[in-house]
Every structure is written in structure tokens, then in C-alpha cells.
């Protein structure tokens, strides 16, 4: 299986900060990379698919980039509603795998 | 709107079995591949299984093969997963998720609220 590694595991930031989360794949996944946001007690919510395509209804402050093995999720101006855990997911094969998650906390 | 509702979770003893259901509404489930994803308490997400729109292709996570069986009833807009020989490490919230894109390249655009399975004596 393809291993996905996110960094950092925890991130502390202020409202209004620009925040970037990294995701690295153990082998190339081409552009087949999605990002999800999960709040406590809730199901994950799709933010971005195919590396940089924004899911309908997701604010434009979220953006994705990368290709192959290195990917990023950027929040251009962190809002109070954005404090959550974020997961990357590769879906290049029939065995999709997730990163371990990045928790974004209020500083 | 698209809605997925899981049911069937509960407390079960080690070695027991459970069948989880995922009822879909707001779309025709027969048009979509469906997935099960689980999350152990305080842990990350783990993909469990995929079933293609017509049920002809099924995939499981390698570590779970043999104990999990996924199926679907498109006439009832429902997907199932049967879990046998339950172990304490199977304790998790089990989510169903709708797949988008052409398999195998499917991301998950809608998720249910999950059903909790607790394996304990």
C-alpha cells in the first residue's frame, strides 16, 4: 500500500494566518490526491479532489497543489470555523490510503 | 439532498459478527461505487472496502481480507458490510462514503454520520 505522511501533526495558528499542511506519498500518486476536513464528532468533509479542484460549497480560501509525491493544502486566511483535523488521501489505486491527520488548533 | 445513514453498530463480544447497513437517499445508489471507511477512537481514517456500482467488482483492504464482506441492494438503495470474527481492534466508527470518479480513482464526496462498533467482552 502507498503510505501517506502529513506534516506537521499539529499546527497552532491565529485567526487570519496563512496555513500550509504538507502531504507526502511513498510513491507517485500522480494527481489523485484529496483533502478532507473533520471536526470532532463529525464525519469527514471533502474539501479538494484531484490535487487542486475545490469541492462545491468549499470556501475559496482553501487551495491545493502538488503532483507525484508532494502535495500541500493551504488556507489563505484561517477562520474560526477552520479549526479541525485535516486528512490527505491518495486514490490512485484500489487501495486508497489516508495520511495520519493534521490538527489545526487555535493559538 | 444526498444523505447516507449507517446503522447496525453496537457492542459485540470478540469472535462475534455484525452486519452494518448504509441507506442512501437523494441519489440513485446504483449509479455510484460505494466505500466503507473506519476510524478507531482518537485515530485516523482507514479505508475498509469498495463495491462497484453494480457489485461486480469488490476490493478490500489487505489487512481485512477474509473477515469483511461488502454487498449492495440497489433496489433498496442500501450497501452492507458483514464483519465476522470481530476483534477488539475492530472497535471503530464505520462510515459509508460515496465514490466519485472512475474506479480505481475514486475520492469520497459524501459520507454518512457513521455507526459505532465496540468489540468488548
Task: Write out key terms for the chains shown.
heterodimer, A: 107 residues, mainly beta, four-stranded antiparallel sheet, 50% strand, B: seven-stranded mixed sheet, 0% helix
Summarize the amount of helix of chain A as a percent range: under 10%
Number of strands of chain B: 11
Q: Report the portion of residues of chain B in β strands.
A: over 45%
Please give the largest β-sheet of chain A.
7 strands, mixed
Mean pLDDT of chain B: 96
Give me the secondary-structure topology.
The complex is a heterodimer of chains A (107) and B (121).
Chain A: E1 4-7, E2 10-13, E3 19-25, E4 33-38, E5 45-49, E6 53-54, E7 62-67, E8 70-75, E9 85-90, E10 97-98, E11 102-106
Parallel strand pairs in A: 2-11
Antiparallel strand pairs in A: 1-3, 3-8, 4-5, 4-9, 5-6, 7-8, 9-10, 9-11
Chain B: E1 3-7, E2 10-12, E3 18-25, E4 34-39, E5 45-51, E6 58-60, E7 68-73, E8 78-83, E9 92-100, E10 107-111, E11 115-119
Parallel strand pairs in B: 2-11
Antiparallel strand pairs in B: 1-3, 3-8, 4-5, 4-9, 5-6, 7-8, 9-10, 9-11
Structure explained in plain terms:
The complex is a heterodimer of chains A (107) and B (121). With 107 residues, chain A is mainly β. Helices cover 0% and strands 50% of the residues of chain A. Chain A contains no helices and 11 strands. In chain A, the strands form 2 sheets. In chain A, strands 2, 4, 5, 6, 9, 10 and 11 form a 7-stranded mixed β-sheet that branches. Chain A has a 4-stranded antiparallel β-sheet with strand order 1-3-8-7, with no helix packed on it. In chain A, a hairpin with a 3-residue loop joins strand 5 (45-49) and strand 6 (53-54). Chain A is globular and about 35 Å long. Chain B is mainly β and 121 residues long. Chain B has no helices and 11 strands. In chain B, the strands form 2 sheets. In chain B, strands 2, 4, 5, 6, 9, 10 and 11 form a 7-stranded mixed β-sheet that branches. A 4-stranded antiparallel β-sheet of chain B has the order 1-3-8-7, with no helix packed on it. In chain B, a hairpin with a 5-residue loop joins strand 4 and strand 5. Chain B is globular and about 40 Å long. Chain A binds chain B through residues 1, 32, 34, 36, 38, 42-46, 49-50, 55, 87, 89, 91-101, and chain B through 35, 37, 44-47, 50, 59, 61-62, 95, 100-101, 103-114.
Amino acid at each position: 500500500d502507498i503510505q501517506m505522511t502529513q506534516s506537521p501533526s499539529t499546527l497552532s495558528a491565529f485567526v487570519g494566518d496563512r496555513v500550509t499542511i504538507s502531504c507526502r506519498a511513498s510513491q507517485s500518486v500522480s494527481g489523485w490526491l484529496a483533502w478532507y476536513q473533520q471536526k470532532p464528532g463529525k464525519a469527514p468533509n471533502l474539501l479538494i479532489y484531484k490535487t487542486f479542484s475545490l469541492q462545491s460549497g468549499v470556501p475559496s480560501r482553501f487551495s491545493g497543489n502538488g503532483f507525484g509525491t508532494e502535495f500541500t493544502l493551504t488556507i489563505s486566511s484561517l477562520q474560526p470555523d477552520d479549526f479541525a483535523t485535516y486528512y490527505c488521501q491518495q486514490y490512485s489505486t484500489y487501495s486508497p490510503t489516508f495520511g495520519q491527520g493534521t490538527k489545526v488548533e487555535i493559538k | 439532498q444526498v444523505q447516507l445513514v449507517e446503522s447496525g453498530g453496537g457492542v459485540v463480544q470478540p469472535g462475534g459478527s455484525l452486519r452494518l447497513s448504509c441507506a442512501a437517499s437523494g441519489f440513485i445508489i446504483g449509479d455510484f461505487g460505494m466505500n466503507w471507511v473506519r476510524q478507531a477512537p482518537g485515530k485516523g481514517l482507514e479505508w475498509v472496502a469498495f463495491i462497484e456500482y453494480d457489485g461486480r467488482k469488490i476490493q478490500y483492504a489487505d489487512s481485512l481480507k477474509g473477515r469483511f464482506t461488502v454487498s449492495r441492494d440497489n433496489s433498496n438503495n442500501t450497501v452492507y458490510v458483514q464483519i465476522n470474527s470481530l476483534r477488539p481492534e475492530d472497535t471503530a466508527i464505520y462510515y459509508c462514503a460515496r465514490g466519485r470518479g472512475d474506479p480505481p480513482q475514486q475520492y469520497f464526496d459524501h459520507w454518512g454520520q457513521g455507526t459505532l462498533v465496540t468489540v468488548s467482552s
